[in-house]
Amino acid sequence: MQSPDLSQNYFELFGLKPVFAIDPVRLKTAQQRLQASFHPDRHVNDSDRDRRLSVQVTSWINQAFDTLQDPVKRSKYLLEISGAEIPDDSTTTSDVDFLMEQIELREAVEACRDAPDGLEQCHRIEDKLTQRAAELANEFVACFAEEDLPGSVTISRKMQFIQRIQQQLDELQFELEGR
Amino acid sequence: MALLQISEPGESTAPHQHRFAVGIDLGTTNSLVATQRSGEAVCLADEQGRKLLPSVVHFGESGTLVGSEAIALQASDPLNTVASIKRLMGRASEDLTRLGNTLPYDIVTPEGSNVPRIHTRSGDFSAVEVSAEILKVLAHRASLSLGGELDGVVITVPAYFDDAQRQATRDAATLAGLKLYRLLNEPTAAAVAYGLDQNNDGTVAVYDLGGGTFDISILRLNKGVFEVLATGGDSSLGGDDMDHAIGEWIITAAGFVDVDAGLARRILIEARKAKEALTLAESVDLLIEDEQHNWTGTLSREAFDELVRSLVTRTLTACRRAMRDAGVKSSEIDEIIMVGGSTRVPLVQSMVGELFARRPMCDLDPDQVVALGAAIQADVLAGNKPDSDMLLLDVLPLSLGIETMGGLSEKIISRNTAIPVARAQEFTTFKDGQTAMSIHVVQGEREVVSDCRSLARFELRGFPPMTAGAARIRVTYQVDADGLMSVTAEEITSGVAAEIVVKPSYGLTDVEIESMLRASMEHAREDIELRMLKEQQVEASRVIEAIDAALAVDGELLLNPQERAQIAEHRDALAAAGNAASAGELKRLIRAVEEASEFYVERRMNYSVQQVLTGKQIDEVDV
Does residue A121 form part of some domain? Predict the structure, then answer.
């Protein structure tokens, strides 16, 4: 049996406006309200078909939540439903300033590994990245509001890069704390 | 609830009779069964008043013994007495060689199977069959105590169990003739017992160190919703390893050489006694005595701490990783719940307390808390508590990936993703006329496939032949609420669904399960046929009930008269067949009703998703 064609997009599913700046509390509340109705545990004694459906529908709700709660995935999804062309991850940027920033950040993270005050350095970079992510989010909101889709795609890709560096830094901090 | 009809929590559905439901903690060392009785979860005792059933099975000349009676024969008949079988669930022969010296059994692996069997005088048994023996004893105890047949059970598993281990546990339930409502993660069960007991909301860490497994879960509790944020652990680390550490210390200290199975058992039994005594005592005297040996020694708490310190340190690393995955700092954890007998070890308590900078909570009996939580959920799932708004939201413990070129694992679903979850992936063919392909699914965090656990190879067959690159094959990986994975595939341009042949890497195939089921029943054929017929009859009445209830609610709203007549025709045919029809006939008629009402189900789905939010949330939506 086909998964039901729920013709809504993820924003509609959770009763949210299709914008980047969503209220995370409202997203969470809507997700749990849907889960409370559709989760397989609510359908243990139903027919086989209903149980299968409930697994599919809850998977879809989880997928939607997972997409919207992460800023990078949210920005990409928003662009996708707005009809923007999203290049795949292997496409390189020609923005020289951004390339320089990437290289500097990578080097800074690597330098923490063997530095005697590595953890403190990590915290400083972390603060900087948090700030940078917030700046990019604001830029994205402004750019998307002007309906500049190619510009928004570029910002979304920068957000993705910052997030990757954040993850690398996180992994490194975990390693350093374990020493 | 019919066709996923929405009813708000608290809005009771039609009354139904009380169903007997229990929670089972199938542990490495001990197992328990619990039920909800007059609003309170209780562990059920056997006729001698014992709640803990040692997870030990003895295959004797005159029958099978489970529990304390089996333990009594451990030292005298080690090869026919199986303990700690949980460690072998979902494991392959290769894994056993790694555990080699710790398993004093004759292991045989039949040709053409990956599932090792323990050779005993009564035959060769897989871990699934041995576990089923334990489940049967617990289910029997529960039926006697409740005074009726069980409707269903919830069985707990370590959160860190992989797909093969979960599948093996589910197979054991099938073999024991039990209807499994759900596999529940042990830390989640503990949180349920704790959360409902204390009625507290907040963030909790559940540290579960059992006989053979270690789990850490970080959960958020909020008004009856138990949401797992992250989980981690080690599915082969536990109190047994502490026993072995002491055992090795004894062997060295006593200068034993040529340790046979009987002596090894004796040493382990003594080691375990010493570990337990050191919970309260500062030191303990040891004695190993038989015809050839006579050794006495003393183990101090300090020396014991040093023997197990590295084991405890390993658990703390997993705790830190789980907190990181959950995005929670140790200062944000409101409570630490300790589960499992091994958390009685003082070094465990002090090191865990140090990491989280707060005193772990031990108010609930660490041996019983998991079974109690499972009983609470079983009661809810049985439908005995229509007003309950309890909901357990769990995550996938280990990433799922597929093998790509060069033996690397490409992650499909990463660990700590909320389940149920589905991900789809598209492939194409690389040869003209290609009609089949194979997918190797693995589980684990490592990049190289050989460092991950192989789950299964799926052979997808029966695509329409096309030129190379023209076919678009969408493969969907689905993980259900039990954490179990399934795969479906379809060629998109033609809409042809692929036939799928599953070769589980370490599990039993469906054919093997069925033959074990047959072998375990007298008058096997009649029993199985009767069971299948009964199942179809129940399913038929569910389908009719669902359709009737749905039509009564919105049949007029969502369907035109012809559509209603069309559905009614198939529904009436099924109802008319009643109990006179065969299982096959019922199955066919059920299928017909399902096909005829498919469009209606979709309409209802769309309608009901909207219903959940609109009307409830209009004010919020239109802000």
Answer: yes
Are A125 and A169 members of one domain?
A: yes
Q: Are residues A46 and A117 in the same domain?
A: no
Q: Domain holding A19: CATH number?
A: 1.10.287.110
The pair of structure tokens assigned to B334 is 């409101």
Query: What would the two tokens of residue A91 be?
Result: 């496409």
Cα–Cα nearest to B219, from B314, B354, B62, B326:
B326
Q: Report d(CA A130, CA A126) in Å as an integer.
A: 6
With respect to residue A108, please indicate whether it lies within any of the assigned structural domains.
yes
ipTM entry: 0.86
- Residue A16 and residue A37: Cα distance in Å, rounded? 19
Question: Residue A5: its pLDDT value, please?
Answer: 43
Domain boundary among A53, A69, A85: A69
Distance CA B257, CA B551 (A): 76
Chain A to chain B Cβ contacts (< 8 Å): 131
Pair A100, A59 in one domain: no
- DSSP annotation of B418 reads B
- Residues A65, A100, single domain; the answer is no
Residue A7, pLDDT > 70, answer: no
- At how many degrees (to 10) do helices B261-277 and B239-254 cross? 110
B113-133 pLDDT, tens digit per residue, is: 778 888 999 889 999 999 999
pLDDT of residue A4: 39
Q: Chain B residue with minimal CA distance to A14?
A: B613
At residue A86, the pLDDT reads 77
Domain extent for A137? 96-177
State whether A106 and A53 are in the same domain: no
The amino acid at B102: T
A45 contacts B16 by C-beta, under 8 angstroms: no
Query: What's the confidence (pLDDT) of residue B615?
Result: 47
Instruction: Calculate how close chain A gets to B45, using CA atoms only, in Å.
Output: 28
A46:B542 CB<8 A = yes
Q: Are residues A61 and A101 in the same domain?
A: no
Taking an 8 Å cut-off on Cβ atoms, the answer to whether A50 and B605 are in contact is no
Q: Which of B1, B539, B620 sits opposite A15 (nearest CB)?
A: B620
The whole-number pLDDT of residue B585 equals 87
User: Is residue A91 a part of any domain in this protein?
Assistant: no
Q: Which of B46, B151, B163, B208 is catalytic?
A: B208
Number of domains in chain A: 2
- Phi and psi angles of residue A78, each rounded to the nearest 5 degrees, phi first: -60, -40
Q: Does A176 touch chain B (CB under 8 A)?
A: no
Closest residue, chain A, to B4 (C-alpha): A50
A101 and A173 in a single domain? The answer is yes
A100 falls within a domain: yes
Q: Spell out which residues of chain B touch residue A177, defining contact as CB-CB under 8 Å.
A: 320
Query: What 3-state class would DSSP assign to B46?
Result: coil
pLDDT in tens, A154-170: 999 999 999 999 989 98
Cα(A55)–Cα(A60) distance, integer angstroms? 9
Active-site residue (options: B86, B171, B215, B394)? B86
**CA distances from residue A139 to A153, B153, B585 in whole angstroms, order as listed:** 11, 53, 63
CATH of the domain at A157: 1.20.1280.20
